[in-house]
Amino acid sequence: MRSLLRNNVEPFERLGLSEDTFNDEELVNFMLTYPILINRPIVVTPRGTKLCRPSETVLDILTKAQQGPFTKEDGEIIINEQGQRVRT
What we know:
With 88 residues, this protein is α+β, with helices and mostly antiparallel strands. The chain is 17% helix and 15% strand. Strand 1 and strand 2 form a beta hairpin. It is elongated and about 50 Å long.
């Protein structure tokens, strides 16, 4: 559950979330109250649920192979125009 928390946002330190004293239910309640705490994206497919950071990890749980180019937010090409994975 802790891997779903963003630790670089204001509520994280103020709420003392760096301490390992909260159970999963409490952490979920914090994330519901302060959605900025949720590390995203969380992707759900028939092959599983995964926190997709870095974004190319989504390729591991897709039920069908990526059919076109895939470029990260920073412009890095993961799958080229020919559908070939150029970075793993």
